[in-house]
Structure formats: structure tokens, C-alpha cells
Write a structure and sequence with these properties.
Layout (H helix, E strand, L loop, with lengths): L2 E8 L6 E3 L5 E8 L6 E9 L9 E2 L11 E2 L10 E10 L11 E5 L11 E3 L13 E9 L5 E9 L1 E6 L2 E2 L16 E7 L7 E10 L1 H4 L16 E9 L5 E5 L5 E4 L2 E5 L3 E5 L18 E2 L1 E3 L6 E3 L5 E7 L3 E4 L5 E17 L6 E7 L1 E2 L5 E2 L9 E5 L6 E3 L6 E9 L9 E8 L5 E5 L2 H17 E2 L1 E2 L12 H14 L3 H14 L27 H13 L2 H19 L33 H22 L3 H22 L11 H9 L8 H14 L11 H10 L3 H9 L8 H4 L34 H9 L2 E3 L8 E4 L9 E7 L4 E9 L4 E8 L4 E5 L9 E2 L3 H10 L3 E2 L2 E6 L2 E8 L4 H5 L1
Parallel strand pairs: 2-8, 14-23, 20-30, 38-42
Antiparallel strand pairs: 1-3, 3-6, 4-5, 4-7, 7-8, 9-16, 9-22, 10-15, 10-18, 11-14, 11-16, 12-13, 12-15, 16-17, 18-21, 19-20, 24-33, 25-26, 26-31, 26-32, 26-33, 27-30, 27-32, 28-29, 34-39, 35-36, 37-38, 39-40, 40-41, 41-46, 42-45, 43-46, 44-45
Length: 896
């Protein structure tokens, strides 16, 4: 038998360096050739010696099935130290594995007081007009011997790009990222051992504005965090004799203006190649006309090691076509709406300016449409040297685009251009495919919307002068996001910024990091991200520490709602977004028709319920009892105001009925009636939805849960406006902000708010995974330790294939219909050290078959006599399982 320990991770990462975690957590997966495998015990060893001849911490054999988030409990960790770890396991059948391959983590500075470097800046010497220019900073130094280890610890106020001895270090972009800079600033750690050499060396850094001093938001404001770009850097050199030398940023550094004459996130970059500084980052360069930097004091208390995954250029896309528009403009079509920038090669005369203007769509005449960019220019300009082949890509800007207008070249060769797709480097974990090509494109659009908007923070849109971390958008999409990609680190970092920006009264700003006014906070469904997001991460990753980290923040928001008015059972909020962009809104209004008090109190009840469950999980029994009682009282108050004696809702909208069902706000006896009314609203609207940001995420979930799956499928497959597939019929390759961003007649929604890459309505992805494929996690055993496989198929789709890479391994659910035999086939894969309950749709035990042994088949048939959710079910162990059975004619219609 094969039993191996694979996929070792430390804090979700593979071999991280610069980790500022005092008690990191280790996770692993089991790989085996057998079925029904559960871990019975593990042994974990940690050593500072690669060969484990000296063991720092040895758990010995621990009898437990825990294989994720195992906390290091050895001696206190030392800063700037590499720790190796390995694992071996035993299963419940008596088998044991060999030791895993060794992995490691390396600590960062661990304590912000250990920083020795000084903050340095060139901005204090630039006049106001020159502040748009990016300064180049450098420092040369001499060492007597090659180091055995060299680490650079770097951060900045603004953005930075690090160079050592003529090489750009690493492939991380937009470092140090966007955080609540007032209290939290990440630093990055780089292994530069191979580029440091004996003798003369040079450090070089380019600084950009980014979010810190650049323009952020739609009010044309800049310098929201400060007015100087600053650098903090330490290079630690360890020598074979045990000594250490530290090269720091200080007054000995010098600076000079270079070819980056302008660089802003929204507006693009101007690069004058005639002002390049050849070899500026090498030891041989002599900085004769460079100026001395100024030293400034920003302290180090806010510094934390890198928490999020890095932002990188993930893939390259070649243009699919060169278009000459009716206006006579030359435009590249990338074939995909994406976020990033364009790299190009060109030969041109000296002084030629090549201009790239980025846009998401063409207008109805076939010309570039830039109206929805508002004040964002999204334009890069390159001034040529004219001395041969030149290559350019930007440094400190990004664009949301599919189309690029090219000016300045006599002829455009599309093979000389590449679009670089840039986003936080999250592992794709979810896959979904069906027999319907339009649904497949919808899934791809959801993925591309996530790629485009998960650039260090979960932005609402990537193209106009906004690009902010709207809490409501993140909240409605987070479950889909977690299926699609491993977003644990991404959101854990963002939630710490939410806590940092949370008001003293517990209210939560509309955007995180917050750049709006103190008045811009506290809207239901938006601020509820403080509770819903950590809970969702706990469900998906089984990570209790996220709940621990966020508990006080979760509690503060619920307490804010509790104390907002004279009645603690009712949230009397101020400004509310309501069902944002609901199609049932009044003329000239963005807010849907659903009563905002209905929505705010529905979310008050829901967040209080989740807080009570969180308190229970964390062992806070007094809080759990308090919030359970509060939630019951909120629901009672809600029913008194919004539910009539006969069980009808006082608010007659689709969204109201969706929330009442999905948030469990009405008595069980009334739910069939309310579900029927919801179905009737959709039927009477010609099988169309009328929901906005609040109702849409739960629409199909509620329909399927309460007996109207076929209605949900009709909504999914609807191609007429408004629907998920309508934008695809108009050529969409991402999710739109508005159901009719491009109207049937080819005209546009208003320019002021018409993003064509806005992931909120992509929340339908959760339903595709959880209901159509049926892949869900048991809330009592989160993180897919026990999966629930409950597909709810429709004959509208002949087959689906879906998988989710969980912390334990890959869960798969695949099904297909064979007609006219009316045969349903289901394939399920369950990872080792987990179990699953399979709920069989429309099963009557007629002509049932499974790929199990005859003896097991008898036990299986016995088990199928009991069911889950009114349907036969079976609990299975790890491995691959196939089931096949015949469905009685019209069984689906009868039970849907």
C-alpha cells in the first residue's frame, strides 16, 4: 500500500520566508492508493538543521486525525531563522508513511523594534511639479567575502521596485501592497544570496506613488496617507565565520530622477527612454550628479511581515486581432477583458511617442469606448530613443481593458505586443464545466472577474477612478471566491485592515482600506462583511484562528447595530445602500424597491446568528447564549413588523422573499408559501430576476433549497435581459456591474457607473458549486473534513464536471444524464482523511448500481433506506465512487 504525506504548507504557503508569525501552523495532505483512509496519528518534527540530526521540537506520535492548521508549540522562534519541518502519519488500518520531504519556513524580524534602518526620501527635495516623477535611489557598498546567506527586508511609503547588482529582484508587483497604512504596513523579504558577491555591490530602488501618495477615489484627491514617498531597507549578510553585516537605508544613499516622468495607478505611465540611466543599479556606475537623500521619521511600530500572497504577472496574452475603427484608429483586441498592462517591442525614430490607451469595450459604432473610465486616463506613453529595438512595460500602474488603441507607430504588428495579466497569485482551486457552452463562458467570466479585481485588495472594479475595496461586493462574492481560488491569506490580511479601520463605535466603513470620510460607514450588507467574511473563511478552510483574530471586530459590529437606537432588537441604521442596483428601483435611483429597514434588520439577524455560532466554536459560552437570545428577539421583532398573521411578507419584492427564506427569518410553516410567492414573482416577470447586489447572491440558492430548482435553472439559462447569460450574448468575457451595461440596442448604461469587470453578480458561482455540482462542506466539520455531495441536476444540462481543491485534497462531483434511458450517473471523489455524505437526487432504488463489492453493496442498499433532506443518502470514505440508477419518468419534475 502507498501512504505518503504531500502538499506540506506553513500558513497556507509553500516554504515561506520572512514569516512574522510566532506560532505558525502546519498543514499537509495524505496521498494513498487505498480507499476509506483516515489518519489515526501523526508525528511532526521541527529542526534548524536541514538533516534533522538535531530536533528542536518533536510532537512524538499524536493520536489524532488533525492534518491541517497544526500549531507549532516548540521553543520560542528566533528572528531571521530557517526552520525545517517534516511529518509522518499512521492511518486507521495500521499503515504508516515514511517521513515526508522536508519543508521549511523562515522567520522575519518578528519584532518591529528590531529595525535598524532609517526612512529615507527624495520627495522633500522635489518641487510640486516634480512629484509625479519617480526617483531612483542607490547605495554602493563593499564586502570582503561572499555571504552564505543574504536577505533584504524592504518596505516603502508608496510603491517600490528593488534592484541589486544590475538585476531586478523578484517578480512581485505593487509592493508593499495596500493596507491601513496608519497602523499596518507590510514589509517583504527577499533571498538575494546569489546576487551578492565579494567586493563591490550596489543596491537600487525605484519609488512610485501607488495608493499612498497617488490619486485614489473619484474626488481627484491624492496624498491621502502622506505627501512623501519613503524607503526603508535592510540587507543582512551572514558570513561563513558566523558574523553578520547589515547595510541599511540611511543618509548615505543618493537619488536622481530617471525616465519615469509620470506614474499613477489610474492614469498610466510616461516613460522617456532618452532619460534612462544605464547601469544605474550596478557597482561600476559612478553617481556623479546624484543628490543626497533626506532622512525622515515614520517609526516602525506599524510594520508587519508580508501577510498576503504576492501580486504578480500571472500569464501573457497575445492580441487576437488588429482593428482599424471607423474613426481610423488602430486598436488591438486582446480577446479577453483583463487587468494588467501591455509590454511591447518597437523600432522607431528618436523622440517618437508611442501611446497606448486602454478600454474595456467598443461602442456601437465600433470605436473605442472610454466614457466609463470617468477621469481615469488608463494611458501609457513611451518616448523612443531611436537606437534599435526597444522594449517597454510600465512599473507602477495597472489597467482594466480588452482593447488598446496604439498611436505613434506607422504599422502595428500584433506579435510585438503582449497583455500581462496581473493579480494576487492565488492558486485556482475550483473548476466547473457543463454541457452548455454559455454556462461554461459564464464560469470563465466569474474567474476573470476575480482575477481582475483581486489585486492585493478585493476591488469593485479595475478601470475607472475608483478601484476600492468595497465591503459589500467582497461579502456577497467571498463564498464563490473561496471555491474558485485559495483566498485564505488574501482575505485574512484584508480583514485585519477592516479591523484597523473599524470605528471606535464598531461601525465598519464602506471601503477597506478606508479612504472615505468618517460618515461613510455602517450600511447593512456592506458592514456585515465584518461577520460574514470570517465565517465563510472558517467554513471553507476549517481555520478557527481566523474567527479568533476577527472575533472582537465581529462582535463590535453586532454591538453597534444593537446600540444604534432605542430598541436593541431592531437596527435603526443611518445611510443604507439597500438592494443596490436592483432592477425594481424607482426611476433615477440606484436603490432597489426592497424596504431598506427590511434589509438592514434581516442582516442584523443573520450576523447575530453567525456571531453566536462563532462564540460557541471559540468556547465563549456566555456570549453564545447572549447572542442566540438576541438573534431570537431580532427575528421576533422582524416578524412582528414584516410578516403578516397569515405568513405573508409586508414587502412584496423578490429580494425580500429571498432574504426571509435564506436567513431563516420566518416560521417553517410559512416558508413553502413564501417560496411559492417568490416563484410567482419570477414567473410573472417572464422568468426574469429583478434583484440587485443584496438579493442576487441568494436567489438561486433559496429557490433550490425550497423546491424550485427548475426555476433557478431557467434563470441561469435565460439569455434575454436581465440575466447572467445576456452579457455573454453581447460578447462579455467578465461579469458586468449592470445587467444591461450594454443595452439590447447597443447603447450604454450611464457613463458614471458602468464597469464591465465587476464581480458581485458572479456570486452565482456559489450556486453552481454548491447546488448544481452539489459540493458543500458540513458546518460541523468545516474545511471539507466532511463533505456534503448533494447535486440537484436539471435535464437542461446533460452533464457537469466540478472539483474543488480543499485543504485535504480534491473533492470532485461529476454527473450526467443518459436519455432516453433516463439514467443518472454520478462520480464522486473524496480526499484521504475525510468522509462525505452523498445525497442521491430522484433516487427510487430502481435499477441502482455502484462500483463496490457485492458485500458492500448489501450494506449500501440498507444505508440508502434513510435519507437526507427527504432523499436517500450514503456516507462514504475517501477514494473514487461511481453510482448509476434509473429515474422514473417525470420524477425530476415531480420533486423539483
Amino acid at each position: 500500500m502507498l501512504l505518503r504525506v504531500e502538499q506540506l504548507r506553513c500558513e497556507y504557503r509553500v516554504n515561506p520566508i520572512g514569516l512574522d508569525v510566532e506560532s505558525p501552523r502546519i498543514s499537509w495532505q495524505l496521498e494513498t492508493t487505498e480507499t476509506d483512509v483516515l489518519q489515526a496519528a501523526y508525528q511532526l518534527q521541527v529542526s534548524v538543521v536541514e538533516g534533522f540530526c538535531e530536533v528542536l521540537w518533536d510532537t512524538k506520535q499524536i493520536n489524532t486525525d488533525q492534518s491541517i492548521h497544526v500549531t507549532y508549540e516548540g521553543p520560542p522562534l528566533l528572528p531571521q531563522t530557517r526552520y525545517y519541518f517534516r511529518v509522518r502519519v499512521w492511518d486507521t488500518k495500521g499503515n504508516s508513511s515514511a517521513w515526508s520531504e522536508r519543508s521549511y519556513w523562515e522567520t522575519g524580524l518578528l519584532d518591529s523594534s528590531r529595525w535598524q534602518a532609517k526612512w529615507i526620501t527624495a520627495d522633500s527635495q522635489l518641487d510640486t511639479m516634480g512629484l509625479q516623477v519617480s526617483p531612483f535611489l542607490r547605495k554602493s557598498f563593499h564586502i570582503k567575502a561572499p555571504p552564505v546567506r543574504a536577505r533584504a527586508y524592504v518596505t516603502s511609503l508608496g510603491l517600490y521596485e528593488l534592484h541589486v547588482n544590475g538585476q531586478r529582484i523578484g517578480d512581485w508587483l505593487f509592493t508593499p501592497g495596500w493596507t491601513a497604512y496608519e497602523t499596518r504596513l507590510q514589509y517583504q523579504t527577499y533571498d538575494v544570496t546569489t546576487v551578492i558577491r565579494e567586493g563591490h555591490n550596489a543596491l537600487g530602488v525605484i519609488l512610485g506613488h501607488g495608493w499612498y501618495t497617488g490619486q485614489i477615489g473619484w474626488k481627484n484627491e491624492r496624498n491621502l496617507y502622506g505627501d512623501q514617498r519613503c524607503l526603508l531597507l535592510e540587507l543582512h549578510l551572514d558570513y561563513e565565520d558566523g558574523s553578520r553585516e547589515v547595510v541599511c537605508s540611511d543618509e548615505s544613499w543618493v537619488w536622481k530622477l530617471g525616465p519615469i516622468r509620470f506614474s499613477e495607478l489610474y492614469h498610466g505611465e510616461l516613460y522617456d527612454a532618452n532619460l534612462q540611466l544605464p547601469w544605474w543599479d550596478t557597482a561600476q556606475y559612478v553617481p556623479l550628479d546624484w543628490s543626497q537623500v533626506a532622512v525622515t521619521d515614520h517609526g516602525t511600530t506599524m510594520l508587519v511581515g508580508q501577510e498576503n500572497l504576492p501580486t504578480r504577472a500571472i500569464q501573457e496574452i497575445e492580441p487576437v486581432a488588429v482593428i482599424v475603427t471607423p474613426n481610423g484608429e488602430t486598436v488591438l483586441d486582446m480577446g479577453q477583458n483583463l487587468v494588467g498592462w501591455v509590454r511591447f517591442e518597437a523600432e522607431a525614430d528618436p523622440g517618437t511617442t508611442i501611446t497606448l490607451t486602454h478600454a474595456e469595450v467598443l461602442n456601437q459604432d465600433g470605436n473605442l469606448y472610454v466614457g466609463n473610465l470617468r477621469e481615469a486616463e488608463q494611458t501609457d506613453r513611451y518616448i523612443c530613443r531611436g537606437d534599435g529595438l526597444e522594449v517597454f512595460q510600465p512599473h507602477f500602474t495597472f489597467h482594466g481593458f480588452r482593447y488598446v488603441r496604439v498611436d505613434g507607430l506607422q504599422a502595428v504588428d500584433k506579435t510585438k505586443f503582449r497583455a500581462l495579466v496581473i493579480h494576487t497569485d492565488m492558486e485556482q482551486t475550483g473548476y466547473f464545466e457543463t454541457s452548455n457552452s454559455l454556462v461554461n463562458q459564464l464560469f470563465q467570466n466569474i474567474l476573470w472577474g476575480q482575477r481582475g479585481n483581486f489585486l492585493d485588495v478585493p476591488t469593485d472594479c479595475p478601470q475607472r477612478n475608483e478601484r476600492l475595496g468595497w465591503t459589500g461586493d467582497a461579502q456577497v462574492f467571498i463564498r464563490t471566491a473561496a471555491y474558485n481560488m485559495n483566498v485564505a491569506s488574501f482575505f485574512a490580511k484584508w480583514l485585519k485592515d477592516l479591523t484597523a479601520n473599524q470605528l471606535s463605535n464598531g461601525s465598519v466603513p464602506h471601503v477597506i482600506p478606508n479612504i472615505l470620510t468618517e460618515r461613510d460607514n455602517g450600511s447593512s450588507a456592506w458592514a456585515d462583511a465584518a461577520v460574514i467574511c470570517p465565517w465563510t473563511l472558517y467554513l471553507h478552510y476549517g481555520d478557527k484562528q481566523i474567527l479568533q483574530n476577527q472575533y472582537e471586530s465581529m462582535k463590535a459590529w453586532v454591538e453597534h447595530m444593537r446600540l444604534r437606537g432605542n430598541n436593541e432588537n431592531r437596527f435603526e441604521g443611518g445611510f443604507q445602500y439597500g438592494d443596490w442596483l436592483g432592477l425594481d428601483a424607482k426611476e433615477d435611483s440606484y436603490v432597489g424597491a426592497t424596504d431598506v429597514n427590511f434589509i438592514s434588520n434581516a442582516f442584523y439577524a443573520y450576523s447575530t446568528k453567525l456571531l453566536a455560532q462563532t462564540a460557541e466554536i471559540l468556547g465563549k459560552s456566555n456570549d453564545a447564549n447572549d447572542y442566540r437570545k438576541l438573534q431570537q428577539n431580532i427575528v421576533q421583532e422582524f416578524q412582528q413588523e414584516f410578516v403578516t398573521d397569515n405568513g405573508s411578507l409586508a414587502v412584496s419584492t423578490q429580494t425580500a422573499h429571498i432574504l426571509a427564506l435564506w436567513f431563516d427569518l420566518v416560521d417553517e410553516r410559512h416558508k413553502p408559501q413564501i417560496a411559492a410567492v417568490l416563484h410567482g414573482y419570477i414567473r410573472d416577470n417572464d422568468m426574469h430576476l429583478s434583484t440587485g447586489f443584496v438579493g442576487t447572491p441568494y436567489l438561486c440558492l433559496a429557490l433550490s433549497e425550497y423546491g424550485y430548482s427548475e426555476t433557478a435553472f431557467q434563470l441561469l439559462l435565460q439569455q434575454e435581459y436581465p440575466s447572467w447569460l445576456y452579457p455573454i450574448t453581447r460578447g462579455a468575457t467578465t461579469i458586468w456591474e449592470h445587467w444591461d451595461g450594454i443595452k439590447p440596442d447597443g447603447t450604454f448604461w450611464s457613463d458614471d457607473m458602468n464597469s464591465f469587470n465587476h464581480y458581485a453578480y458572479g456570486s452565482i458561482g456559489e450556486w453552481l458549486y454548491r447546488v448544481v455540482a452539489g459540493i458543500d462542506t458540513d458546518e460541523t466539520q468545516p474545511g471539507f473534513k466532511h463533505s456534503i455531495i448533494r447535486p440537484r441536476p436539471s435535464k437542461e444540462l446533460s452533464w457537469i464536471r466540478a472539483s474543488v481543491a480543499t485543504m485535504y485534497g480534491v473533492v470532485k462531483s461529476e454527473w450526467k444524464w443518459t436519455e432516453p434511458e433516463q439514467r443518472f450517473e454520478l462520480f464522486v471523489q473524496v480526499p484521504a482523511n475525510t468522509t462525505a455524505t452523498v445525497v442521491f437526487p430522484h433516487l427510487t432504488l430502481q435499477d441502482f448500481a455502484a462500483d463496490v463489492s457485492p458485500d458492500d453493496f448489501i450494506h449500501l442498499m440498507t444505508a440508502l433506506n434513510t435519507g437526507t433532506a427527504g432523499q436517500p443518502s450514503l456516507t462514504i470514505g475517501s477514494g473514487q465512487h461511481r453510482f448509476s440508477y434509473k429515474v422514473i419518468q417525470d420524477e425530476m419534475e415531480a420533486t423539483s
